[in-house]
Design brief:
Largest sheet: 8 strands, mixed
Distance between the termini: 30 Å
Strand content: 15-25%
Bound molecules: flavin-adenine dinucleotide
């Protein structure tokens, strides 16, 4: 057995965040006919932020979740809650250079509002603003960090470049050659506890939540909508669809969003001597900056969550529980972990899981309406929706209200991303792109002709 397979041998095949004491009991499923102003489909962060904000406005809200609250990406992610609404400043600059100043301000306000909500409702989600460090593990990445630092500063964020010794003084890995420490603009959270707390807050504001209620169809009904599930029906004035990478109830979403699987490991709690061996007393959120990157952070009980690298798309875009487990990826991740932290050799992983990311070609949220404006959808956050979901939900509510706001006037909101081609070209293009990204990593970051073409037309693939 290799050190990697040994380390993951006893890992439980479920998300660490959902496997904690204190998980709330399931709410009953929908049973019968219920009327509402707004029906929200999906009980992840987007649906929950929608429900909370709409209930706070006095709307009668019903939220329907097919499984359990936080069952999807929202209960499986790394818990990096970033201010950026655009999957980073670089992506924002490439797509919306003229309005990025506004988007960054809105992102800052959004993060402030999340912090305030967490405090106001006493949501114990391990909120910690310990900053992030992006680490370079190859010399060519130092230039990228310098460019990122300049962009962060340009938009008013803290950015401190670290040399190899500087970054290793924070977190000691022999693979690091430099780092970019940003002390603001993000928080780390326990995402499941955030969801559970938002659900409670939404209910306290008057919303009703039904779990284990997959919605089979959504249709116009008079001036409103009808959401049908096995046990009942919700008749509402409006619907907000927050179903992320799952099969959508509105066909148009299929063109813009593909489910890309991302995988995560969590270690056993590190004893004091192991913690001493790596430093990391600042508990920053970390990620490396290759095209195929890892993200990692500590949990409240001193485990390390370690995820990323592989971003897996399957022909046909199936989303199913059997896809949550991928032994080859777990072994690769474990091997990379011990390469990064050889001091931790012998440490075991207790959890391994995967989740579907709603990847869209511009790597950030998109909005649309259906059923003559009676329904809106908010999808496509790609790998950075923990914070942006609140903003996404707010815009979705604006669109349903027909409100003309600074948000709805954004080009980012008005413009659609480029659609993905239909299958099997979709699958072939994504495989080609994944291979090209891996090759670029091997060749000092140099992007080949395929990636340069995608860059030119504004199509992309990321996790
Ligand atoms: C492994 C992984 C790591 C990630 N790491 C980060 C990170 O560190 N930081 C970050 O910002 N983002 C991260 N992300 C992305 C982030 O988790 C998502 O952007 C965010 O959680 C999206 O929330 P959501 O509510 O839109 O989707 P989801 O949480 O997926 O919620 C959708 C919900 O809709 C329900 N649903 C679907 N169809 C129906 C139906 N027909 N009827 C009823 N219910 C339905 C599903 O059961 C699900 O609960 C990560 C994602 C993954 C998978």
């Amino acid at each position: 057995m290799t050190r990697a397979s040994l380390a993951i041998a006893d890992a439980a095949p479920r998300p660490f965040w959902l496997d904690q004491p204190g998980a709330p009991p399931p709410r009953p499923p929908l049973d019968g006919v219920v009327e509402a102003d707004l029906v929200v489909v999906g009980g992840g962060l987007t649906g929950l932020w929608t429900a909370l904000q709409a209930a706070e406005e006095g709307k009668r809200v019903v939220l329907l979740e097919g499984e359990r609250i936080a069952y999807g990406a929202s209960g499986r992610n790394g818990g990096f809650c970033a201010a950026s609404l655009t999957h980073g400043i670089g992506n924002g600059l490439a797509r919306w250079p003229d309005e990025l100043g506004t988007l960054e301000r809105m992102g800052r306000e959004n993060l402030d509002a999340i912090r305030a909500t967490v405090a106001a409702h006493g949501i114990e989600c391990g909120w910690e603003e310990t900053g992030t460090i992006d680490v370079a593990t190859e010399p060519h990445q130092l230039e990228w960090l310098a460019q990122d630092a300049e962009q962060l500063r340009r938009f008013g964020w803290h950015a401190e470049l670290l040399d190899a010794a500087g970054v290793r003084a924070q977190v000691d890995s022999p693979t690091y050659v430099g780092g970019l420490w940003s002390r603001d603009g993000s928080a780390l959270v326990d995402p499941a506890r955030l969801c559970w707390g938002l659900a409670r807050a939404a209910e306290a504001a008057g919303a009703t939540i039904f779990e284990v209620t997959p919605v089979d169809s959504l249709a116009a009904d008079g001036a409103g909508v009808r959401a049908d599930a096995a046990g009942g029906r919700v008749l509402a004035r409006r619907a907000l669809l927050a179903t992320s990478a799952f099969p959508p109830l509105v066909r148009a979403v299929r063109r813009y969003v593909v489910p890309v699987y991302d995988y995560v490991l969590v270690t056993e709690p590190l004893p004091e001597d192991r913690r001493d061996a790596i430093g990391w007393r600042g508990r920053q959120g970390l990620s490396d900056v290759a095209n195929q990157f890892h993200y990692y952070r500590q949990t409240a009980d001193h485990r390390i969550l370690w995820g990323g690298y592989d971003a897996v798309y399957e022909l046909g875009g199936r989303v199913a529980p059997d896809r949550d487990q991928r032994p080859a990826t777990f072994a690769l991740l474990a091997e990379h972990f011990f390469t990064t932290f050889p001091q931790l050799e012998g440490l075991g992983f207790t959890h391994r899981w995967g989740g579907a990311i709603d990847t869209c070609s511009r790597f950030s949220a998109m909005w649309g309406t259906a059923l003559d404006g009676r329904a809106a959808y908010v999808v496509g956050f790609t790998g950075l929706g923990v914070g942006a979901s609140r903003f996404g939900a707010r815009v979705g509510l604006d669109l349903l209200d027909g409100a003309d706001t600074e948000r709805t006037r954004l080009e980012m909101v008005r413009r659609r991303p480029l659609p993905f081609p239909p299958e099997p070209a979709r699958w072939a293009a994504i495989q080609l792109t994944r291979r090209a990204l891996a090759r670029a990593d091997e060749r000092g970051g140099r992007r080949g002709p395929w990636l340069r073409l995608l860059d030119r037309v504004g199509l992309g693939f990321d996790s």
